[in-house]
């Protein structure tokens, strides 16, 4: 299991940011580059507001609306995912689009990434044998709510 740290991640290179945008079919505008960098360096699963605060340090005229629209375009292009927060709704963003699950701590409101290939195999086998009427699952992500134990 991996957990987000409270510290910023190392800044990606401009070339890496451009590659990620190009790979998602998006032009590498200055705003997109900045917003993607902020999304990647902020710990955990940041909100649009957290991304905006970070981006506004370098571009004070950048609006929160632009950050929301840009993050939505990232989601549509498969560059990031929306993650439902512990209090409900899809208010946070995850730049890690690999298959993984999320644990929600109701005490701290923390969202913790959780990877378990054995669990993934069990879920795939379950749906292969049980199936769903008129539905073929392509991917899945569990959202598990609980409390971190000290």
Automatic annotation (TrEMBL):
Binds 1 zinc ion per subunit. One of its GO terms (molecular function) is zinc ion binding. Its cofactor is Zn(2+). The keyword Transit peptide does not apply. Keywords: DNA-binding, Metal-binding, Repressor, Transcription, Transcription regulation, Zinc. This is Transcriptional repressor. Coiled coil: none annotated. GO terms for biological process: negative regulation of DNA-templated transcription; regulation of secondary metabolite biosynthetic process. Zn(2+) binds at residue 105. Belongs to the Fur family.
């Amino acid at each position: 299991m991996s957990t987000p740290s409270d510290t910023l991640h190392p800044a990606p290179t401009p070339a890496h940011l451009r590659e990620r945008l190009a790979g998602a079919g998006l032009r590498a505008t200055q705003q997109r580059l900045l917003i993607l960098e902020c999304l990647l360096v902020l710990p955990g699963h940041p909100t649009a507001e957290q991304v905006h605060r970070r981006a506004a340090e370098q571009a004070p005229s950048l609006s929160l609306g632009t950050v929301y629209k840009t993050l939505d375009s990232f989601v549509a292009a498969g560059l990031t995912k929306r993650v439902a927060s512990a209090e409900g709704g899809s208010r946070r963003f995850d730049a890690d689009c690999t298959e993984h699950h999320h644990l929600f701590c109701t005490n701290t409101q923390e969202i913790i990434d959780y990877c378990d290939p054995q669990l993934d195999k069990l879920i795939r086998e379950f749906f292969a044998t049980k199936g769903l009427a008129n539905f073929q699952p392509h991917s899945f992500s569990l959202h598990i709510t609980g409390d971190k134990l000290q």
